[in-house]
Amino acid sequence: MSGKSKLIQRYTAGDRVNHALLALAFILAGLTGLAFLHPSMFWLSSLFGGGQWTQFLHPLFGVLMFVFFFVAMVKFWKYNLLTGNDFRWLGRLGDVMKNREENLPPVGKYNPGQKLLFWSLVLAMPLLLVSGIALWQPWFAPMFPIGAVRVAGVVHVLSALVLFLGMIVHIYSALFWIKGSTRAMTRGTVTDAWARKHHPLWHREMTSGEKH
Amino acid sequence: MTMQSQDVVKRSATTRPSPSVRHGVEVAKLIDTSTCIGCKACQVACAEWNDLKEEIGDHVGIYENPLDLTANTWTLMRFAEVEPEEYEFDWLIRKDGCLHCGDPGCLQACPAPGAIVKHANGIVDFVSENCVGCGYCIAGCPFDIPRRSAKDNRVYKCTLCSDRVAVGLEPICVKTCPTGCISFGSKEQMKARAQERVGHLKARGYANAGVYDPEGVGGTHVMYVLKHADQPELYEGLPKDPKIATSVALWSGLKPFTAGLMGLAALGAFVHYFAVGPNEVEDEEEETGKTRAAPPASKED
Ligand code: SF4
Ligand code: SF4
User: Fold this and answer.
1) How many CB pairs under 8 A join A and B?
2) Consecutive sets of 10 residues in chain A, 212 residues long: mean pLDDT of each?
3) Which atom, in ligand 1's list, is nearest to the CA of B140?
4) Contacts with A, B 96-125, CB within 8 Å
5) H helices of B147-245, where?
6) Looking at the predicted structure, is the pLDDT value of residue B228 above 80?
7) pTM for this structure?
8) Which of A122, B79, B262, B300 could be stapled to B63 by a disulfide with Cβ–Cβ 3.0 to 4.6 Å?
9) Ligand 1 pocket list (CB less than 6 A)
């Protein structure tokens, strides 16, 4: 039987809107943040109307990013709990990298790579928020002792690193590597074949009861 | 403002050399706290020359006025009643303000290109039009000097009258001081003068007299002569062994490292795309509804 036209629902309209807002907030917070990360990227501040605007906007984008992430986290944490099977999958990263999913233990709605990404965000986002508040001029930084602001600077850089590394993997996988993924977040559905190939246990769950 | 006639030896968030063909003499201001009478002429002169006006505050019964440095008060007389030793009393007066560090923590922390410069003559200057108002310099300074202005979201501090010094004049506080306790000249001259003053103080019985020119921040271009150089904290919290905090060094040091790792990760993705290629659902999988090999747990077929 042809699976060509069959589609499986992966995300609701609410999930998609929240994810799109999260992505937008990440891009804006990311670009404004990169401007202050290294002189070679300071020119990015021009995109936002100069350094003064960038300094004003960055924390606001950051807070929005945290809010949208929080919404997603509340909904999706339960799908991201690691199982014993996941560690076997992680032990075969070579096959993962080489697109040989036939050698991998079957995964459910999310593969262990996606789960680890999720948990790295659960770590990085609150750290970014708290350290960001301590650095936030003019409203909050003056309430913190200088020693705390300094530590916040270190924490902000390190957690931004975790976030960016995660996002590079995430964006590469979703947009370039695993073809057919993008439509899950743009239209909410994936093809039957895609689900069977990349998330066989989830596919089974979604199609159980149906005849093949 | 930076001036064409001034060389810049350090510039915030800048990775290529700044103009530096000239040969500048390092300057320094020497403040002999032992001859300061606390008249605040320098504090007033600073406001006058730099056209600053502090808000009228409240008198709270102590000499410090205002109570702290602000974006409008770049130098402040601080008064401390202390007991350097038991049953001994001293009233110490210190003119607080930027020390113009050899290795400025403010500049190291600043993420805005050219918002803070260090001139070849040693003056550390904030270039307000480049300042983004992030306040990182406030955290970077080991002496708690820079202050943000709510009016224009920029940070200010003593310029060592870089505008006057650039045209061969002494800073306005030096010119105004009625007791001659502030002097200005080359760093070498000022060090020699400081030693002379320390000699006098020692002869008068201040065995611990000394110069405050802390090594930890690469020396400073504003130095103090202190009667109790062994306990600089007595002077309203002058740090004993100031240096750029490890956390500040780590914070600014991690930034290029972080940017580099991000670049490497992106490069890794790029290489993966061309070496391994995208993972596509193949036509055959689409047609037959089967993956290349059935996953072990699948009940299909
Ligand atoms: S005293 Fe503070 S503000 Fe002045 S040069 Fe040193 S670090 Fe910068
Ligand atoms: S606030 Fe301080 S650290 Fe931030 S840009 Fe201005 S001078 Fe640089």
Assistant:
1) 177
2) 73 98 98 98 98 98 98 97 92 94 94 97 98 97 98 98 98 96 96 95 87 47
3) 7
4) 109, 111-113
5) 162-166, 172-176, 187-203
6) yes
7) 0.93
8) B79
9) B 98-101, 104-106, 124, 141, 143, 145-146, 157
